[in-house]
Specification:
By secondary structure, the protein is mainly α. It has a domain of 195 residues. The chain contains 10 helices and no strands.
C-alpha cells in the first residue's frame, strides 16, 4: 500500500522537532493547561462512554453487573460478607464504569473530535516553536470541526461494532472458531486504537480527504509500529493500570490521586505524544518527497 504524497503548501517554513522529552519539558505547562480543556470538553464523551460500557462490557465480562460482581467478591473472599452490601457493590460497579469510560476516551475511541483536532493543531505549532493558543485553537476548530466530528462519530460506531463482536464470540459456542474470531476482533480493536493516534493530528496538520486520513493513519501505524506500540502501552498504563490499581488499593486517597492525574496530566500528555509521533512521521514523509 503506497502513501499518497502530502501537499507541502501548508507545511512550509516549519522547523524540525527536538527529542520528545526535551520538547515536552519545554511545553509541559501549556500541555497541562490543554489537559484541563480536554477533560472539560469531553464531559459528553464520558457520558457516552459510560453508556457504552454498561451496554457492551457485560457481553464481554460476565461479572460486569452489580449482581455478578457481588458474587465474585464473595466467592473470592475479597471482603467480609457482612460488608458486601448492595449499596457498596453498586458504588464499586459505577466506579468501574467511570474508569472504563475514561479508558475509552484515553484510548481516543470516544472523544470530542473537534476539540482534539484543535488542540492537536496547537500542539503541532508548539512542537515547531510557533504556538499561540488562542489563534491556533480558533483556527484549528474553525477549519477542521466537520471532518473531526465525522471522525469521532465513526470511531464510536466502529468501536461499538468491534466490542459487540468480541462480546458475541465470547458467549458463542463455536469451539475454536469462537476463540479465533474473538482474538481477531481483539487485535482489530488494538489496531483501531493505534490508528486513532494519527487521525486527529493528521486532520489538524495535512489537507486530506476523509478516507485518506484513515488510509494514511493505517500506513503510519505499520511503518512506525515499534513507536506506536510503545505509545499504545503507555496509554494502557495511564488509563488502565494506574487508575484501577491505585483507586482500588488506596481507597479514597487513590480516588483523589486518580482524579488529579486525569485533571492535570493524562489526556494532555497522550494527545501531545500522539501529535509528536504523527509530526515526526510526517517529517519523514516530506523528506522522502524532496
Amino acid at each position: 500500500m503506497n502513501q499518497k504524497p502530502f501537499d507541502t503548501a501548508g507545511l512550509a517554513g516549519t522547523s524540525k522537532t527536538k527529542g520528545f522529552f526535551r520538547s515536552y519539558g519545554r511545553d509541559w505547562g501549556k500541555v497541562c493547561g490543554c489537559n484541563a480543556l480536554l477533560m472539560s470538553s469531553n464531559l459528553l464523551s464520558f457520558v457516552i462512554g459510560i453508556c457504552l460500557v454498561m451496554l457492551l462490557f457485560p457481553l464481554i465480562f460476565e461479572s460486569f453487573t452489580p449482581a455478578n460482581l457481588k458474587q465474585v467478591i464473595i466467592d473470592n473472599n475479597l471482603a467480609n460478607v457482612a460488608e458486601v452490601t448492595d449499596e457498596a457493590v453498586e458504588s464499586i460497579f459505577y466506579t468501574l464504569c467511570m474508569l472504563s469510560s475514561f479508558l475509552l476516551t484515553g484510548m481516543l475511541l470516544v472523544v470530542n473530535g473537534p476539540f482534539y483536532s484543535a488542540v492537536s493543531f496547537y500542539f503541532r505549532n508548539l512542537l515547531t516553536g510557533e504556538g499561540d493558543f488562542k489563534a491556533d485553537f480558533k483556527k484549528g476548530l474553525k477549519e477542521n470541526w466537520k471532518k473531526s466530528l465525522a471522525a469521532s462519530i465513526l470511531s464510536i460506531v466502529v468501536t461499538v461494532v468491534i466490542l459487540f463482536n468480541i462480546g458475541y464470540y465470547q458467549r458463542a459456542d463455536f469451539g475454536t472458531a469462537s476463540l479465533a474470531a474473538k482474538s481477531f476482533f481483539s487485535v482489530l480493536l488494538a489496531f483501531w486504537c493505534c490508528m486513532q493516534l494519527f487521525v486527529y493530528p493528521l486532520i489538524a496538520c495535512v489537507e486530506l480527504k476523509f478516507r485518506e486520513v484513515y488510509r494514511n493513519a493505517m500506513i503510519m501505524v505499520v511503518k512506525n509500529f515499534p513507536v506506536v506500540l510503545a505509545v499504545f502501552l503507555i496509554q494502557l498504563v495511564l488509563f488502565l493500570v494506574i487508575p484501577f490499581g491505585i483507586m482500588f488499593s488506596l481507597g479514597n486517597i487513590g480516588y483523589a490521586l486518580t482524579m488529579l492525574l486525569y485533571l492535570i496530566f493524562s489526556f494532555g500528555f497522550t494527545s501531545y505524544m500522539a501529535m509528536y509521533v504523527t509530526w515526526t512521521a510526517i517529517q519523514k514523509i516530506l523528506a522522502s518527497q524532496n
